[in-house]
Amino acid sequence: MTSLRTQDTGHDHLQGVALHETVPPGVSPGLYNQDLAPTKKQGRTWSAYNIFALWANDVHSLGNYSFAIGLFALGLGAWQILAALLFGAVFLFVLLNLSGFMGIKTGVPFPVMSRISFGTRGAQIPALIRGGVAIVWFGIQTYLASMVLDVLLIALMPGLAPLAQQMVLGLSVLGWISFTLLWIVQVVIACYGMESIRKYEAFAGPVILVTFVALAGWMLYSAGGRLQWSPPNPLTGGAMWAQILGGASLWVAIYGTFVLNFCDFTRGATSRQAVVSGNFWGIPINMLIFGLIVVILTGGQLSIDGTLIQSPTDVVQKIPNTVLLVLASLSLLILTIAVNLMANFVAPAFALANLFPRHLDFKRAAVVSAVIGFVILPWNLYNSPIVIVYFLGALGAFLGPLFGIVMADYWLIRKQQVDVPALYSDSAAGPYHYVNGINPKAIQALIPSAAISLLFAFLPALHALSQFSWFIAAGLGALFYYLIAPKGLTYADRDGEAIAVATSH
């Protein structure tokens, strides 16, 4: 990262007000900084393994395990759960490749990518929606991880137990300590930039896989090799298949945020093949392993005592050996940090950097988003179902249409023809200026498709279709935009090498 320097002197002292970076000719300072700039094609560092490591962490998140285990409670047995996950994995594999290829070709992060379809100013809308959802979930996920750390600290230092009973602003004193420690760790990692995140994900991926495979092995041993393959009240016939397809659709919806800004990571990928290979091993193959672990953990516990676990933490807490308990808890903490960094830290950092490019680079924006995630007191939000359902549900209703609009514009209208340098120009004659920097066609497609998505989310009469709301909303966003967007135009296709920066700048 270039230094922050004052322009009125020749001195190299740091200046904390604005980012004064060298801006290439023809580029607007209000649309460009070193983190928003396209990445050079030479020297990109994200290999197939790095892409795989992202999924090795994210797929095995505690929230995903809770979701998949919940399918047991809804009446699906072992093979039906595996079928739901694999159907979802196939869809995700295709969608993530489509999104990822955009990052490889252009080298730009999601807020800049959004300028293609929404305009140089209008791109703030999808960027801030994606970033807003991520900031809230960053705080919530850090809070959930802090509860694991609470248990770990008490196991190692029983004298801390009284601190778990003293409440301050809705959280115990011990909870404040755990939350703050985890918050600091994540901020430190993020402040070293995307390369630091890449290295952390590469480290965490194998740790998580080994941990969960070992946990499944321990459960299989504890159950004497006996698994209960069917839930207490299994579904059959049409109801079973409806639940399988619904589970697959919800599995895709869980990743509705990630498919939107996957280019934030693939802009640093070495090749298309690296993305395809990383996605193949990280999505269908890794998700099959994930499904088998879910079946073993759930079926093993049902076989042992007939109870249905809610999360792998239920299994971890029952480990009789203190050393193994500590190691398993540490692995869960490593996992949660990895998931948070990739899913809930990168997006808001780029969104804020895009909002204030002259004042915020990636690192500063990461700190700002982390501070917001702290001061909103996320444990109070998590413990308020109304806030979760209505706030995050409302924001989430926009994610499907945003994906549909961006994809339709890039793949169907422009057919991958992008003038990358023009994405950083605020000239009224620029191809992405539209009307005062906003593309009205994108807004016209977004509003009705998001409104319909909201109806699926909140109207009881449409509850049966709510599982498929992301697909429906994404499809409607793409359809509406395709119908009203001008067609038959010729688009310039220029790479951004002239204004690009090194991946590890």
Automatic annotation (TrEMBL):
One of its GO terms (cellular component) is plasma membrane. Gene3D superfamilies: Hydantoin permease. It comes from the Bacteria. The keyword Phosphoprotein does not apply. Keywords: Membrane, Plasmid, Transmembrane, Transmembrane helix. It holds the Pfam family Transp_cyt_pur. It is a multi-pass membrane protein. Its main location: membrane. The chain crosses the membrane at residues 67-96, 134-156, 168-190, 202-221, 241-262, 283-304, 324-353, 365-382, 388-413, 442-462, 468-484. GO terms for molecular function: nucleobase transmembrane transporter activity. It is found in: Membrane. InterPro entries: Pur-cyt_permease (IPR001248), Uracil/uridine/allantoin_perm (IPR045225). The keyword Transmembrane helix applies. Belongs to the purine-cytosine permease (2.A.39) family. This is NCS1 family nucleobase:cation symporter-1.
